What we know:
It contains 11 helices and 12 strands. The protein is an alpha/beta fold.
Amino acid sequence: MPVEPIDTMGRPIRDLRISVTDRCNFRCTYCMPKEIFNREYRFLERDLLLTFEEIERVAGVFSGLGVRKLRLTGGEPLLRRDLDVLVGALAGIAGVDDLTLTTNGSLLARRAAALAAAGLKRVTVSLDSLDDAVFAAMNDVGFPVQQVLDGIEAASAAGLTPVKVNAVIQRGVNDDGIVAMAEHFRGTGHILRFIEYMDVGHTNGWRLDDVVPAREIRERINARYPLQPIDAGYLGEVAQRWRYVDGAGEIGIISSVTRPFCRTCTRARISAEGMLYTCLFATAGTDLRVLLRGGASDTDLAAAVAAVWTARTDRYSEIRSEATVPLPKVEMSYIGG
Ligand code: SF4
């Protein structure tokens, strides 16, 4: 059994996020702006994508290095054909006790049952507003709220619980819907999480003025529905958790901008073409596909990953500044959130 690598800040690898496609059927303005990701945009050709067998091998190697949680992401992962076949393969990897997926929910109502049957444990669904006009403007393809809500209910009915619902909050865009979202998901068992708008990638035109700080999000809800803090459930949990005093469930707030959590970040990311990134805001990655297709053994792969991780110094959210925002950071749609 290889020794678990620890990075320069004492962090192990516990969480691997695997992007299975760089394509998406939405054009969320803060992630995949239409002006950039248009008809001319060259998405990854199929033969450049890691095959399911390669993804399974990589996930197995990471599990041997300490990973306990696998998250499938995209783009929109449900656009990848036969995804439940991959889910079935990953569900069987020793040492992995959590297998989840992040989706925009557009295809979930039709796919939830098959994914659950294949071994998926939970889902996280992105939904930035309950207001159809606001949501349509944010996803920029006019997709309706109700179909995402149907997907959430289908996932819940299939046992992919607790369903987490992520909403990225932008000032002047959807922040006036914060309390309405809290109200809608209270008492449902679904966990609503608000995400501070982040300078992911280098195409979303991010400005600090457009960020609604976690403290303000909490205060707005607390004024209507009193909240009390909940301790983190495990090392590396990204959300600050709050429960409703009246017992109607909990919410989470992910505060990468105003309250960084890099000190406990145990996440690695793999792009759909096999590039390893050690931070969401990375500007460079390590090509694992060349090793996979170059005859490397699992031991070679593990050594390559361990070498990258032990040299890791990432803490972008702690050093974010006007100078770092324009850096050519990898796009979130390419490596998943
Ligand atoms: S900014 Fe990078 S190091 Fe910090 S929590 Fe996010 S992914 Fe981890």
